[in-house]
User: Fold Multidrug transporter from Secundilactobacillus paracollinoides.
Amino acid sequence: MADTNRKPQWQKNLYALWLGNFITGAGASMSLPFLPLFISTMDHFSKFQLNLYAGLAFSVTFLSQAIVSPLWGKLADRTGRKPMLMRAAAGMTITATLTGFSPNVWVLIGLRLLQGCFSGYINNAYALIASEVPNDKSGQTMGTLTTGNIGGQLIGPIFGGYIAGLFGYQVPFFIFGGLMFIATIVTLFFVKEDFKPMDVHNPLANKNAFAGIKHKSIVWAMIISSMLIQAATTSINPIISLFVKELMHGHGNVAMTSGVIAALPGIATLLAASRLGALSDHIGPQKVLIAGLIFCGCMFLPMYFVTSVFTLGIFRFLVGISDAALLPVTQTVMTLDTPSEAISRIFSYNQSSQAIGSVVGPMLASLVAGVLDYRYVFLMTTGLVLINLAVVGLAYRHDRKTVKTA
Assistant:
């Protein structure tokens, strides 16, 4: 008699990949906050040099990631997603560990460049689950998978800061490498993929990834939306601690307070992502996405007027709830509209788009804060959200017209 309580393989994969996402998020975030401090120990740099090298070390990973992700995505659609997960986990194990041994800043920047080339664990985890999950479970499942990465990003800086304070700035990189080795083992033994290579005679095999997609304008809108969401979310990163210091008038523990303010959106996203994903399964992802964008803009705009850290913290927490309605839902839409033969390529384009957002957002914010003031960054971010809302709204409107005339 068959065991009716036995979990389907896609659920087992979800548990293993949630852990892998958690490890990846924790490992990456435990080392990033201390890059400038690590670089400062390598030589006697001026303030300008230190900012320049720290910016290069941070952004070069995302730049290389944006360039190579489509190539890995194309390979994943031909060989399977599990080999790409193994490649990413093993690659980051090596590059993260070697980064801790960097003798100078240029070796560190070079290793960060390589790390971007080999990264993509989280993107491939989404692609593998998206290719297996039933359509009526896709929203909740993508939301759940997102909580793994977000949870890791919350714990990583706290743990990394404690370790760096005790043992030095190199040690978080060694721990990052060790964690990615664990992710490699978990993926190897607990993730199983029933992958069927694409038939070379299949018309989709030799066409671009969008060839088999019915709602092309929707998928393109989701990719652009991912970039704008990431740009809006990360734009605050370079100025948040400086703005908190200004609100506190230089008194109190600015570093700890900044850490809490920075973590609040992630906490909210962790609590809300799965629930909002389930809601999108019931009422449709379009409604959740548009409502999330409107709510997001309504939360960013008042930050321009805040006069206390407590008020800023409230709005930051609420922004995290809107984040839970955005990235997981864009991935759900792509899952529903993309044939399995092209899903890795589409998700890799999405990763490239997010990586570009991670570069553009902080750069724009630094420029705006330098020319005007910290508060104007929130107006800029509100503008990005409004542009995003327009992109999504126009795409759905265009798709409806196309369907009617078809």
